[in-house]
């Protein structure tokens, strides 16, 4: 099963080449727009311009369905000084935290030695492109 999620907020999943979702009305509208223009199968959907975290989630889902999702940083822990998992950083980006400084304020990642700031920046660029 293909799935993209913002924990405790929204989930997109692929079942029998059809997108299913759990989440707010705002996400539902974005999914409906894709279905209207590109059909039920998310493999045929186009990525959207990122305005909010739901756009990040939708793009992640589309890329996963098209087998093109590959994060630029794949280690389990992103910030070794503050012991911040990569998943925590990607989750806050999907919640609408789009700059390295904001990620640091929310997660503490990058606020120690700073060597992971480049990785945070690359993750952010990848997810909000």
What do you see in this structure?
- The chain is of the alpha+beta class and 129 residues long.
- The chain has 2 domains: 2-65, no CATH class; 77-128, BFD-like [2Fe-2S]-binding domain (Arc Repressor Mutant, subunit A).
- It has helices at 25-38, 53-65, 86-94, 100-107, 117-128; strands at residues 2-6, 10-15, 18-22, 77-79, 84-85.
- A 3-stranded antiparallel beta sheet has the order 1-2-3. Strands 4-5 form a two-stranded antiparallel ribbon.
- A hairpin with a 2-residue loop joins strand 2 (10-15) and strand 3 (18-22).
- The longest helix is centred in the N-terminal third of the chain and has 14 residues, at 25-38.
- The chain starts with a strand and ends with a helix.
- The mean pLDDT is 96.
């Amino acid at each position: 099963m293909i799935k993209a999620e913002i924990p405790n907020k929204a989930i997109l999943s692929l079942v029998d080449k059809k997108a299913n979702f759990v989440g707010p009305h705002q996400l539902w509208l974005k999914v409906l727009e894709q279905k209207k223009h590109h059909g039920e199968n998310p493999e045929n959907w186009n990525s959207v311009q990122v305005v909010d975290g739901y756009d990040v989630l939708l793009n992640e889902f589309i890329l996963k369905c098209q087998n093109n999702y590959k994060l630029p940083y794949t280690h389990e822990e992103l910030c070794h000084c503050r012991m911040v998992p990569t998943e925590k950083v990607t989750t806050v980006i999907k919640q609408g935290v789009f700059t390295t400084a904001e990620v640091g304020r929310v997660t503490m990642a990058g606020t120690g030695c700073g060597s992971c700031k480049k990785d945070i920046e690359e993750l952010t660029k990848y997810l909000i492109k």
